[in-house]
Amino acid sequence: MDAADTRTDAAGGRERPAEPAKRAASGETGEPGEAGRGAGRGPKTGGKSGLARFVLVRLLLFPPTAVGAGLFTFLLVKIIPGGPAYARLGENATPESVALIERQLGLDRPLPEQFLSWLGKALIGDFGDSFQTGFPVADTIAETLPVTLELTLIAIVGTCLIAIPLGVFAGKRAARRSGRFVRSASGLGLAVPDFFAALVLITIFSVWLGLLPRLGFVPFAEDPVRNVHHLILPAMPMILGGSAIVIRQVGAAMADAMAGDHVRTARAMGVPERRITWLYAFRSVLPTTLNVIALLALGQLGATLILEQIFVLPGLGRTLVTAIGQLDFPVILGVVLVYVVIALVVNLIVDIAAGLVDPAIRKGTA
Question: Do the Cβ atoms of 315 and 308 come closer than 8 Å?
Fold first, then answer.
């Protein structure tokens, strides 16, 4: 045993393991506040009351954030040239017909009145009716949201299954050729835009190999197998781009963790390498991994705007793009608000998970 890892017992003169080694052997991994060491201490520090306050603070941020996003979107759509009346009437628009349509839609009222009227209804789940179709926006969201969520979920699960093991591999072998190769290869995913990756993947898996359908969608309730079969190809570009990000972030964090004192101590204690990798090193970078996945989920929600168009999927992203083209204000506002709420919920879930893993995060010290 290394001399630095030992202390002399004052009573008996025997050498005993130093505190870091004892913590490593018992599953605890280091000093407070140092990156990569908090996981082993477990979620006990801070207690249930600390976690409850942590969740409460984030829940209190929900309403002002959602209202702020709604106000920003409302003002943004109001400065778009033209208007719903022109979009509906097209080339036949005359000042009189435009004024009539705007009066029918309530667009002739003052802006504060329009916003407060929309906000009051939105708080109870009423987003109004589409200017173009006349259908309730809430019904449209209810029909299209599951498609987008399912596509995003498949992409996230696929990314985690591929990227986390590769990121751990790259981090463990950061100084070796194999680790550098994985990191370099992941750069390809960062360099390729989603729409270009989609075209390449369609050519390979749909046109050349005929393995996956190019278009079409089958609801999950109708046929789960065909449903997933139709969503694999649209999810592939998201998995490709997301894996590149996760591999690089997890790889860098793992490289730092594997060089930490707690890992060296565990090795000196004879702990098996697999246990060191996943219980000590990866556990310490788990908060980083969760944050990366949260950002990835939000980014992939944004990617659905393009991919649902390419693959003609009846999702929320395609609905939003169509609404923007038609200046359908109620649909735009409703869909954007739903995206904001999803982002807040994802961040809350990840914050709670990270707080459970690392008490310093929920105490606001990390």
Answer: yes
pLDDT for residue 23: 45
The pLDDT of residue 361 is above 90:
no
pLDDT digits (tens, 9 = 90+) for 3-50: 444 444 434 444 444 444 444 444 444 433 344 444 444 444 455 666
pLDDT of residue 362: 57
**Quick one: three-class SS letters along the chain?**
CCHHHEEECCCCCCEEECHHHHHHHCCCCCCCCCCCCCHHHCCCCCHHHHHHHHHHHHHHHHHHHHHHHHHHHHHHHHCCCCCHHHHHHHHHCCHHHHHHHHHHHCCCCCHHHHHHHHHHHHCCCCCCECCCCCCEHHHHHHHHHHHHHHHHHHHHHHHHHHHHHHHHHHHHCCCCHHHHHHHHHHHHHHHCCHHHHHHHHHHHHHHHCCCCCCCCCCCCCCCHHHHHHHHHHHHHHHHHHHHHHHHHHHHHHHHHHHCCHHHHHHHHCCCCHHHHHHHHHHHHCHHHHHHHHHHHHHHHHHHHHHHHHHCCCCCHHHHHHHHHHHCCHHHHHHHHHHHHHHHHHHHHHHHHHHHHHCHHHHCCCC
Q: How far is CA 74 from CA 70, 114, 159, 330, in A?
A: 6, 9, 34, 9
Q: For the purposes of burial, counting CB atoms within 10 Å of the CB of 35, is it exposed (0-12), middle (13-18) or buried (19 or more)?
A: middle
pLDDT digits (tens, 9 = 90+) for 181-232: 888 888 877 788 888 999 999 999 999 998 888 888 888 888 899 999 999 9
* Residue pointed to by tokens 């829940």: 59
For residues 196 and 205, is the Cβ–Cβ distance under 8 A?
Answer: no
Across the range 102-130, mean pLDDT stands at 86
The b/e string for 271-280 (b: 16+ C-beta within 10 A; e otherwise) is beeeebbebb
Average pLDDT over residues 318-326: 89
**pTM of the predicted model as reported, rounded to 2 decimal places:** 0.76
% pLDDT > 70, the chain: 83
